[in-house]
């Protein structure tokens, strides 16, 4: 969802800059951008967006502060409450001690899609190898696992590889099954 928002806002900026540049040259001239040229610029946008998301400037304390605040905001406002809480708290606790490689790893984690990231962090699905190699993802996953071990009884958890929430109508009747839901 975050990638979609960034893409939409960048697309709007691209179109507005094309229109603005057209108007500054000569307001009475025909449009200087052809449809094929605009299409080429839009298709090249995906490569620009990927490289832009890992670029940051730590040359002075103000630019570092801005970058870290943006990343903290992105981690707390993902749109999925569970991820907002887990990522937001972890990033808030650890972002000040990160170096440039740590920040790049954090950006890679924040660029992952919410449903996939939540399933991988909560252990519902095994993450791909490229994600496991990310040190930030590994640290967050260890924190989630330690919190689960500290605060949740094993009986309340779904079996590995199964979703946690199965629905409201999953009342089970049996000797060893919970009364309702995942409780």
Description:
With 183 residues, the protein is an all-alpha fold. 62% of the residues lie in helices and 0% in strands. The protein has nine helices and no strands. It has helices at 2-25, 35-43, 45-53, 61-76, 81-94, 100-110, 114-122, 129-132, 135-151. Helix 4 (61-76) runs antiparallel to helix 5 (81-94). It starts with a helix and ends in a 32-residue tail after the last helix. Residues 23-52 have low confidence and may be disordered.
The gist of it:
The chain has 9 helices and no strands. With 183 residues, it is mostly helical.
SSE sequence, one letter per element: HHHHHHHHH
Largest sheet: none
Distance between the termini: 30 Å
Number of helices: 9
Radius of gyration over all CA atoms, rounded = 22 Å
Q: Let me know the number of strands.
A: 0
Approximately what portion of the residues adopt beta-strand conformation? under 5%
Structural class: mainly alpha
Instruction: List the uncertain runs.
Output: 23-52
Mean pLDDT figure: 75
Helix content: 55-70%
Anisotropy-based shape: globular
Structural topology:
Blueprint lengths: L1 H24 L9 H9 L1 H9 L7 H16 L4 H14 L5 H11 L3 H9 L6 H4 L2 H17 L32
Helix pairs in contact: 4-5, 4-6
């Amino acid at each position: 969802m975050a990638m979609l928002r960034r893409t939409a806002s960048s697309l709007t900026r691209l179109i507005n800059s094309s229109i603005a540049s057209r108007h500054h040259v000569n307001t009475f001239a025909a449009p200087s951008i052809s449809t094929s040229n605009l299409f080429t610029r839009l298709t090249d946008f995906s490569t620009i967006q990927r490289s832009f998301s890992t670029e940051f400037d730590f040359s002075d304390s103000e630019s570092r502060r801005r970058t870290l605040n943006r990343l903290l905001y992105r981690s707390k406002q993902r749109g999925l409450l569970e991820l907002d809480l887990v990522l937001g708290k972890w990033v808030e606790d650890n972002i000040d001690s990160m170096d440039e490689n740590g920040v790049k790893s954090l950006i890679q984690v924040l660029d992952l899609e919410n449903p996939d990231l939540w399933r991988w962090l909560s252990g519902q699905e095994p993450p791909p190898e490229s994600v496991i190699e990310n040190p930030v993802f590994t640290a967050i996953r260890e924190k989630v696992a330690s919190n689960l071990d500290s605060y949740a009884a094993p009986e309340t958890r779904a079996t590995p590889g199964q979703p946690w929430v199965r629905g409201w109508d999953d009342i089970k009747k049996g000797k060893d099954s919970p009364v309702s839901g995942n409780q």
